[in-house]
Each structure stands twice: as structure tokens, then as C-alpha cells.
């Protein structure tokens, strides 16, 4: 049963909570080849009306989001499993004045110079971002269930003996990545492209960023080369690719968003959420999910490491977190490596 | 009165942001225009109407909050300085069904099994928590002001020419560290000590951790050697010290708190907050401040780097963030390195 394509839809932390999230896909295999459609808003109004919550899989009071497993109501997917992710949206500076003028306010508590209120803004100033995965397989659902984390120390040998065979055996689908690279989906979201098949890449906003404000700026560079699974595959021959992504990615972000390179955190994940090389660009000061030292690797360090030793990522013991239910964790445990 | 005491109003570390009990606002669903009636807060409706934003002091897209400095409109405090903190509220499980039924939904994007929407809920299902400090003194205002961050690329030469002279010239006091090592202060807080003058250290809970629960566990190992300022001073000769801190630190935490090493993130900071070598132990899953890839260095990586090259931290370009008001940033700028 091959599958699990992972994508960054949620914004929690932890391991799989990387900037990207893991989304299993493969089981509903027929879906992978389906052409993406965009019929803005047509079916929208009714999609959620009959949605039946089965289980709250995860929620964060800090981040104001919630992950729900449920069944679709009437419509083409009626009765099918779905994962629904809701997240409150950040405040927008440009609508504050209107917010102050038009919101209802209710005093809750007052003490000396401190008071607290409930503010009820008009609907259009306070929307919620909703992400739907439908039909969702059991793997999708499992992936979103919150789980304990374990830190792995993976030697180069562990990678070749355990992790690599596991990745190959799963043959994770990255069809959605190819859809982007081939402009079959999300073409209008592309911020920059260098079409060179060797060193080129597509720069695209991460799903978690709604592009309305810069303080949670988050883009992903996806390389055109299809043979690089992760950090572990990199050698000195990839330096031109990596340097190109760093250089042109930063320039494109400066050009489009006026955010200079000294404000950007540029890094890779290991383990990545999907096994097609990609690089994360997030703005400094934004604690993006997955930017912790236990999972992120600064691109500038990766470049220096390869300049020093082309075998660095083949031989080095790498540390990363895995969720308790991750199949790779079980493989490592079976092999007595955890 | 003025600035007598500080009060914790923000929810930076999720400390104060528990799921808040919401008052069911009795006004009719979807009635944006209804005026709040005189109740506990009779002046409520007008408090914000004339509020003039002076400055956005801080905002977090992740936590969906914003800190605003402004002046009050009409009312008893007209024209006075105020700090207004707005924060979106967490989702409530008990109102999800109503949310699905009554919200407007607008399709934004669709690709394969993934789609995203804007959800417009009725006002009463989506309120905002507002906290007001008024009149606010300059200290209040300064307290909430965030500083811009800049990412520095410091070569080994930059360190020797700019950073090291700066550290020496400032002669930062670490007397409080010596007080701990000599048991002149906080002796009762020590969790573990290896008294060896070369490889020994003291393990002590970080001030940010109140030790009441394990999910934000945070301890610091402070070495007895006094000549190691930071990562930059480390060579292969320090390997026994580093390995000792890793090994015995993890064992002590297992013994005292029953948290195994595979649940611990063990790392150094560069730049550190004080120039006496120390190592951070935080629990996985807790996004401790400063555990981001731009500032943290896993101890296991530091050890491997030194095993490979004793000069690693003397020669390597290191990346780290500095606040706009940091004196070191000005030194680097003067030297044309930023």
C-alpha cells in the first residue's frame, strides 16, 4: 500500500508539524491524477453545512487552530471521510481602524488601569481559514492525530540500512509536487521560477501563509530535479543548485515582498515531509513550525558542510524527531536502533 | 500611580492563553448592527470608537495577537496613552456544529484532494479578546515594543576582529554564574553537580521553568571551567567536557524527572546571553524560546563537528540573529560587515 504524500497544511509544531504537514494520499489513488479545478466559490456555501464531526484530532489554544476528522454532508463526496483544518487569521494592520469603529465591545473585567473586553467584529473583518482534505484516507487522519515525539540519532549506516529502504518501499507519491512543477496546479501562485532542469526551481508561498501580511512570510522553493530525496542525497555536485536557490530565492523575495535576505531564515528539513528536495524561506521573528534546531538545517550551513566534505550528509549522524506512530520509528525500533 | 508593577498580560509563551471561558453573548445571530446595551460595561461601545493607533508595537501571526500603542478617543481618558492588546480566541468544540451550519464559505484554491476556503462565521461565534492598559506609562509601552531582528553571517575573522574585542571591551559580568558555581546563590535549586574542575558542571532549572509540569521542562548545565566564553572557543580538547555534560546531564534529568534522553533537545546558543559556557536541556515538543535553527546548535552536532575538525568553530561562518538595538550589531555595521 504505497502512499503518503505530505503537504504543509497545518501550522502546529513538533515533528510532522513542520512547515509542511504529512498528508497521506495514495490510498485514494485515482485522485492523484485528477486535474485540479478552480471554480471559485461555486460549491462553497454548502460544503460544510452537513459536515459531521467524528473526532477532534488536535487543537492549539496558542495558535488558534483545530484539526477535525469528520464526514462530508450532501454533495459529490457525501459520507466520505475528510480532514478539516480551521485556523483563525492574523490581524491586519490596514483594517484596524475599521475594526475599532465597527466592532461591538463588551466589558468583561476592570482592575485599576487594566480592563478586558469581548470584541465582536463584523464578519468580513474576522474570517477563518479552512483547509479541507477530502476524501481523506486513514493515513491522512492518523497523521493529524497528535502524538508523542522521540528524538532519533540516525547514522549514515542507519540511513542506508533502514531509512532509505523504508522510503523506497513506501514509494511516497509526490504527484502534487509534479503538478506544481508542470503548471497543472497552482500556476497562478508561483512567485518566481528558474526553469533550468538542473539548477532551476519554483518558488511558491507555503499553504500556511495567506500572503496578507509579511510577519509570517513563508515560501517554499521546489527544485526541478526529481532525483534528490532529501539532505541525505546531497553532495558537492549539488552546490550550484543550492547556491542558486539561496541567491535567486532571496532576490525574488526582496523583489516581490521587499524583505531583504538578512531578515530571512532559509533552511531544509530532515526528515522532510515529502521526498522531493525543497527549501523553506521564513521571515525572522516568525517562529514557523518546524524551524527548531532538531529538524531544520540552515541552507548556508548545508553549503559550508558540502564545501568542506562532499560526503558530509552520507556519513554524518543526523538528529531528528519522529512521532510515536511513525512507521519509520517502528523500523528503527525493529532494527534495535531506538 | 504610574508604572508601579508589571503585569503579565501577553501570552507570549502560551502562559496566559488557556482556553478562555466565553460569555455567551446573547445578541441575535448575525446581527452586526445591534448596539451593545448598557451592562457591566456601559461605556464599552464607545471605548474603541475613537481609538487612534500610534504604533503597532508587536504582532504574531502565529498566535493571532497584536499589541497597539494608541490614544483614547472621547471619554474620561480622552487623549491619554493606552496599550491595546487584541487576540483571536481559540476554537470551541461545543460551537463547531453551529459554525458549520451558519458560516459563509468561499473557495480559494483546489488541487487534487486539497482545497482551501475563507470561512465567514456569524459574529457571535468568532469574538476577539481585547485587553486595555490605560493610562499607559512609557514603561508599559516600551515593555511591549518588539525589536526588529537581523540575521548575521559571522566569519571566523569577523569574530576575532569585531565580536571578540567587543565582548572583551564590555567585560560583561558573570558574577551571578560564579555565585551559583560557588554555592553563594541558588544552591538549593541545583539538580545535579559534577564538581570536577575540568569536566564538571552544575545542572539547574532555567528561570523560565516553574518546575510545576514537565511539558516545558528547561534546565541549564553551567560548566566549572571559567575560560570558555562560547562555541567559538571550543576545540577538540573540550570533547571530554561536552560529552560529560551530555551524558551526565541526561542521566540526571532521567533520574530526577523521569524524562529519557530521546525526549530531550540538548543545545548551545550562539550568540549566548552570557559568555560562560552553558548548555540548554529542553523537552521535545516544547518550543522553548531560542531553540530555533538560527540560534541553537545541537550538542551532538557540536561534538561531531569537533571530532571532524578541531578548528571547526574557529573557522566556520556562523549565522545568528541580533536585535536592532544590539551594540554588537552597530559594531558589525561600523566595520561594514552588515
UniProtKB/TrEMBL annotation, chains A, B:
Q: Where is the active site?
A: 278 (nucleophile)
Q: Which SUPFAM superfamilies match?
A: HIT-like, mRNA decapping enzyme DcpS N-terminal domain
Identify the species of origin: Acipenser oxyrinchus oxyrinchus
Predominantly, its location class is cytoplasm
Its annotated function is as follows: Decapping scavenger enzyme that catalyzes the cleavage of a residual cap structure following the degradation of mRNAs by the 3'->5' exosome-mediated mRNA decay pathway.
List the protein's name.
m7GpppX diphosphatase
Q: What class of enzyme is it?
A: hydrolase
Q: Which residues bind substrate?
A: 176, 186, 206, 208, 269-280
Gene3D superfamilies, alphabetized: HIT-like, Scavenger mRNA decapping enzyme, N-terminal domain
Location(s), subcellular: Cytoplasm; Nucleus
Question: What subunit structure does UniProt give?
Answer: Homodimer. Associates with components of the exosome multienzyme ribonuclease complex, such as EXOSC3 and EXOSC4. Interacts with NDOR1.
Gene designation:
DCPS
What lineage does the source organism belong to? Eukaryota, Metazoa, Chordata, Craniata, Vertebrata
**Top-level taxonomic group:** Eukaryota
